[in-house]
From TrEMBL:
The keyword Lipoprotein does not apply. It comes from Marinobacter azerbaijanicus. Part of the tripartite ATP-independent periplasmic (TRAP) transport system. This is TRAP transporter fused permease subunit. It is found in: Cell inner membrane.
């Protein structure tokens, strides 16, 4: 089974190029980063031209830096790779030269020339191959299904059929407009997402990642379950900058997982803690990963409003994971690190406390309403200023050049996924499948908003299996977003709901990509890690239902509603954590555990009657548990 899923999500191997070729690729990657900074902040460039050049350069770098398969050569590209590199550059040059004519022509009215069809066909094939190498079977198969559906779907009977779309028509929409390949996902990848990944890269290179780990260690390292709590805090802080649960697992997990195992945590548990914490990082403001930027671009909601709305749900997520880690550690008798193994908090703040300033600057600029592009550049500038204070963190020209190159190379897989998602979105728009799918969901759900939400959540998780969060979100938003809007949920509620489950797909079995990444470090079965991570983050699967039924958790509404919703949800999360672990100082019997679980669910639901019933459940559960009646205990903060 594990071998099957490994093949299912298998991708090409990342190359470690050395010598002159490595230097050349490194330099070209840095130049791409400088070009993105220039075109997004200094000089306005026609958006279509910018997208064409950007995609061409990223595809060329991708074929040089990622092999064709898991067992491909990691030291140098093959002949096929060089052919694909040349094709990427030639196609980019062609579209760049012809961009003026393309901008002036009327789509579907002026016929495409033979050279247009050839260049567009090559670019389509290059995008699909790039997706296969970086993302694997999941998204690639979705793209291919939609391409076939666009070209042959007219022969299907019933509602799934549509008016015939010729190959020329298909390429015209997909490659020569902003509704297909060069649509919202790729625009976000080339602007907001790229610049925020650059911010995270510079912060890590300057020593910010090490500071946040030391800060987490100083705050929680010596407490019960200290290593796991370090993982929760540090992975969350790093994850909000990286925006990728998988890369977060690999980066922070390589440190935290061995420490947890050394102090008695089982292999599956250590992996589960890291996966749960890393996945939550993509939901934690102020950055929230690239999917949140796509949400802002797609919906028109200001990114600042999305980040503010995401604060409470994200904190509830980490409260649940932290509380369960504490209870599990108590149940297993796991201690924290010794004083010699953890840094002192004053020393940690003295040595790296200035790295908090970039996050403060970033958050402040977002709240003041500046554009995400401007915010990312300013925050990166603050990182460089902070790094100059100490010689050990100072970034010279070489370090800055390296950080620019690393940013670009980290983005190649995101760009491929976003380009592929653009193809799917264009196909959905072209065939009207979005409206048909919304009608289907509405038909299945009837008048039940809960069933519609459940179907939407399930679809977002299925779409996210084996593919990046941005792709999963945009597909879910296009397919089921209209249905939720018809149910009278607001635009923010609907899309935040889809975003949550798109992120959670990274750790949800059976294809939990973050769990597969952790399994190599923890030396445990991926499925076992994924199941454990879902249990630790159980609140994350419930809170989205709560904030679509009441916007208080999204900080929307009156202060009274917001306060009541937040306090009630905090109590509910803690009770759910107790029920999930079946432990509170001592092991709970079946009925008190069920009572605490039911009470937790009801406390999270925003209604007075639910709170009343929940309170009765808590009282009955305490009465049924003798040791809770005798002693006074505090739920861990």
């Amino acid at each position: 089974m594990n071998q099957f899923f490994t093949i299912l999500i298998g991708t090409g191997a990342k190359r470690h190029l050395t010598g002159k070729l490595g230097t050349a690729v490194h330099g070209c990657a840095a130049l791409v980063a400088l070009a993105v900074i220039y075109t997004t902040t200094i000089k306005y460039v026609d958006l279509y031209v910018m997208m064409v050049v950007f995609l061409s350069a990223m595809l060329a770098l991708l074929f040089l830096s990622v092999s064709a398969g898991p067992k491909g050569r990691e030291d140098r590209p093959s002949i096929l790779d060089w052919i694909l590199v040349v094709a990427s550059i030639v196609v980019g040059i062609y579209f760049f030269i012809e961009s003026g004519r393309i901008a002036e022509r009327i789509t579907l009215l002026y016929p495409l020339e033979i050279s247009d069809l050839l260049a567009a066909s090559v670019l389509l094939a290059l995008t699909i191959e790039a997706t296969r190498r970086t993302v694997g079977f999941g998204l690639t198969s979705v793209v291919l299904v939609f391409v076939v559906y666009n070209l042959l779907g007219h022969s299907l009977p019933g509602a799934l059929g549509f008016r015939e779309v010729s190959y020329n028509h298909f390429l015209d929409i997909m490659m020569f407009t902003s509704d297909g390949l060069f649509g919202v996902p790729l625009r976000v990848a080339a602007t907001y997402a790229f610049l925020f990944v650059m911010f995270g890269t510079f912060l890590a290179k300057a020593g910010g990642a090490e500071f946040f780990y030391n800060l987490a260690s100083a705050l929680a390292g010596r407490r019960t379950g200290g290593p796991a709590k370090i993982s929760v805090i540090s992975s969350g802080l790093y994850g909000t900058m990286s925006g990728s649960p998988t890369s977060d697992v690999v980066t922070t997990g390589s440190v935290t997982i061995p420490i947890m195992q050394r102090l008695g945590y089982s292999k599956p548990l250590s992996g589960s803690v890291e996966v749960a914490a890393s996945t939550g990082g993509s939901l934690l403001p102020p950055v929230m990963g690239s999917a949140a930027f796509i949400m802002a671009e797609y919906t028109g909601i200001a990114y600042r409003d999305i980040a503010i709305a995401g604060i409470v749900p994200a904190l509830l997520y980490f409260l649940c994971v932290y509380a369960q880690v504490h209870l599990r550690s108590q149940k297993l008798g796991l201690k924290g690190l010794s004083r010699d193994e953890t840094p002192a908090l004053p020393d940690t703040l003295r040595n790296g406390g200035l790295f908090i300033l970039p996050l403060v600057a970033l958050s402040g600029a977002l709240v003041m309403g500046y554009s995400p592009t401007f915010v990312a550049v300013i925050a990166t500038g603050v990182v460089l200023l902070v790094a100059t204070v100490r010689r050990s963190t100072r970034m010279g020209p070489k370090a800055i050049w390296d950080a620019l190159a690393v940013t670009t190379l980290r983005m190649v897989s995101v760009v491929a996924a976003c380009a592929a998602a653009g193809l799917v979105i264009g196909g959905i728009s072209m065939t009207g499948l979005g409206g048909k799918f919304a009608d289907l969901v509405y038909l299945m759900a009837g008048d039940s908003a809960f069933i519609a939400l459940f179907i939407s959540a399930l679809l977002a998780i299925i779409l996210g299996m084996g593919m990046p969060t941005p792709s999963a979100f945009i597909l879910g938003a296009v397919l089921v977003g209209p249905t939720l809007l018809e149910m009278d949920f607001s635009l923010l509620q609907s899309n935040m709901f889809i975003l949550y489950f798109a992120v959670l797909s990274a750790m949800t079995p059976p294809v939990a990509v973050a769990a597969f990444a952790a399994s190599a470090i923890a030396e445990a079965r991926p499925l076992e890690i994924a199941v454990g991570a879902v249990k630790l983050a159980i609140t994350a699967f419930i809170v989205p239902f709560a904030f679509v039924y009441g916007e208080g958790l999204l900080l929307v509404g009156s202060w009274m509603d917001i306060t009541v919703s937040c306090i009630s949800a905090i109590i509910g999360v803690l009770l759910l954590s107790i029920a999930a672990e079946g432990f509170w100082r001592e092991k709970l019997t079946r009925y008190p555990r069920i009572g605490f679980g039911l009470a937790g669910l009801l406390f999270i639901m925003p209604s007075w009657w639910a709170v009343g019933i929940a309170s009765i459940c808590v009282v009955l559960s305490v009465i049924a548990t003798p040791h809770l009646r005798i002693h006074k205990y505090n739920i861990p903060a």
